[in-house]
Design a protein that fits this description.
By secondary structure, this protein is mostly beta strands. It is built from no helices and eleven strands. About 0% of the residues lie in helices and about 60% in strands. Strands 2, 4, 5, 6, 9, 10 and 11 form a seven-stranded mixed β-sheet that branches. A four-stranded antiparallel β-sheet has the order 1-3-8-7, with no helix packed on it.
Length: about 120
C-alpha cells in the first residue's frame, strides 16, 4: 500500500504562482510514475502533469510552459511537486496527487485526498 499526502493549494489571484507537494510513503518501491490530476466542477478529472521514474514528463496542453512537475526520492518517501505560475481562473479545480505502481505483477493506482486551488480576482 502507498499513502499519498498532499499539501499546498489555496486561493490566489490570476497571474500568481502556487506550489503543490505530495509525499508518498509505504510500499514506494513499486512506484514507477507519479502525477497530478485535477477536477473542476461539472468536469471530468484530467491529467495535468506526470513524471516517470526515468524523468520523462508530460503535461496537458493548457499548462505547458506554466507548470513544472518534479520528483525527489529517499529511502522512506517520494515527493512530487507541481510548480504553477501565471495561474488562470480556468486552473481552478481540486488537484489530486496520483501514483502508479507495480505490485506483485499487478498495476495499482493510488490517489491523494485532493487539494483545492482557486484562481480568482
Amino acid at each position: 500500500q502507498v499513502q499519498l499526502v498532499e499539501s499546498g493549494g489555496g486561493l490566489v489571484q490570476p497571474g500568481d504562482s502556487l506550489s503543490l507537494s505530495c509525499a508518498a510513503s509505504g510500499s514506494i518501491r513499486g512506484i514507477y510514475a507519479m502525477g497530478w490530476y485535477r477536477q473542476a466542477p461539472g468536469k471530468q478529472r484530467e491529467l495535468v502533469a506526470r513524471i516517470s521514474n526515468n524523468g520523462v514528463t508530460n503535461y496537458t496542453d493548457s499548462v505547458k510552459g506554466r507548470f513544472t512537475i518534479s520528483i525527489s526520492r529517499d529511502n522512506a518517501k517520494n515527493t512530487v511537486s507541481l510548480e504553477m505560475v501565471s495561474l488562470k481562473p480556468e486552473d481552478t479545480a481540486v488537484y489530486y496527487c496520483n501514483a502508479e505502481a507495480l505490485e506483485s505483477l499487478r498495476f495499482r493506482l493510488y490517489w491523494g485526498q485532493g487539494t483545492q486551488v482557486t484562481v480568482s480576482s
